[in-house]
Amino acid sequence: MTQNTENARRRQHAQSTRQTLATRSAADTTTRTAVSAVVVTGASGRTGSRVAAAARAAGLAVRAASRAHGFDWQDASTWEPVLRGADAAYLVYPTDVGDPSAPEAVGRLARAAVGLGVRRLVLLSARGEEQALPTEEALAESGAEWTAVRAAWFAQNFSEGPLLEELRRGGELVFPGGAVQEPFVDVRDIADVVVAALTDGERYVGRALEVSGPRLLTFGEAVAEVAVAAGRELTYRAVAPRDYGERLAGFGVPPEEVEFLVELFASLLDGRNAHVSDGVRQVLGRAPRDFGDYAREAAAAGAWKV
Fold it and tell me: In the predicted model, is pLDDT for residue 181 greater than 70?
C-alpha cells in the first residue's frame, strides 16, 4: 500500500467517524445530570490543574486523580475509589489522546464510570488529529453524556514541560513545526470551556468543541514573541519530524513512543490546523486569550529565566 493510499484511507475513515459522532450527537436523548462533584484526571498537569482550579471557582467539589493521588490509567483497580460518588469527570489521557492504547483505556474507564453513576464525561482531544477520533468514538459508545474538547497547540507548551527547558537553558527551540501557522490556545481557556461543558450539559452533550487562540503564528513567530516578553535572545530551529524523532530517542524516549510522535507531528504540522476556531467565543461568550498576553504573564512569573 502506498503512503498516498494509506493517507486517503485514513481521511475516509476519519470523515466516516466524524459523521458517526455527529449522528450520535443529534440523536442524544439521555436524561441530563446535575453536576456537583467532578473527578479531574491529570490534575497536576497543564490542563488538569487549570480545570481543577476553574471547577473549584465554579463551586464544584474536585477529586484530583493522578498517580500522586493513587490513580493510574493502566490499573483499573484504582478507578473505582476516585469515581464512586462523583457526578462527572474530566479525562486527559497520557501521553496523547491519539495514542494507540487510548481508545481501549478511555472506553473502559468511561464504561466503568457510567456503571458507578458518573454520567457526564469531558475528554481533552486534539484539533485536526485523526488519530484521536477512535478515542472520541469509544467515549461516545460508553453510554455517557460526553463532550470532546478539541484543542489547538497549547501556548503553555512554551513555558511548561520539556520544550521549556530547551528555551530556558539553551536559548533555542528545536521542533518540527517548520513555517506552519498555529492558533496557540491558552490552557486557561480550555479549562473554562471544560467546566462549561461539565456544568451545562444540555448544550454541550454529544458535541465536539474546537478551541483555539485568536490569531495564527508560526512557531518561529511565537518564540520571537516569547523572546521579547522574556527580554532575552531566543531562537527557533525547524527540523524534519524524522530528525526530531532521533533527538527524542537520544533523550531516552521509548522507540514505540518515538514512532507515534514522529507520525503525529508529520500529520498535525502539515498546515491542516492553520485556521482559528471559534469554540471559546461560542461557549464562553468572549474572545480567547491572546498569545502575547500569555507570553508577558509567563515572563513576569519568571518562566524563561535561567
Answer: yes
**pLDDT tens digits, residue range 35-81?**
899 999 999 999 999 999 999 999 999 999 999 999 999 999 999 99
- The strand pairing partners of 235, in sequence order, are 172
Closest CA to 292 of 184, 189, 190: 184
Longest Cα–Cα distance of the chain, Å, equals 55
218 forms bridges with which residues in the sheet? Answer: 181
Question: Are residues 235 and 172 in contact, defined by beta-carbon separation less than 8 angstroms?
Answer: yes
End-to-end CA distance of the chain: 49
In this prediction, residues 2-24 reach a mean pLDDT of: 49
Residue carrying C-alpha cell 522574556: 230
H helices of 84-206, in order, are 102-115, 133-140, 162-165, 187-199, 201-204
Q: At what angle do helices 133-140 and 3-27 cross, to 10 degrees?
A: 30
pLDDT tens by residue, 212-224: 999 999 999 999 9
Site of grid cell 524563561: 304
| CA pair distance 135, 161, nearest whole angstrom | 24
CB 81 within 8 A of CB 112: no
Mean pLDDT, the chain, rounded, equals 91
User: Between 2 and 197, whose confidence is greater?
Assistant: 197
14 vs 133: CA distance, rounded Å: 7
Q: Rounded to an integer, what distance in angstroms lies between the CA atom of residue 101 and that of residue 99?
A: 5
**Three-state DSSP state, 217:** strand
Q: Is 283 helix (H, G, I), strand (E, B) or coil?
A: helix
Residue 293: HSE in the Cβ half-sphere, 13 Å Cα cutoff: 12
Cell readout for 141 is 459508545
The grid coordinates of residue 25 equal: 450527537
What DSSP designation does 169 have?
A: I
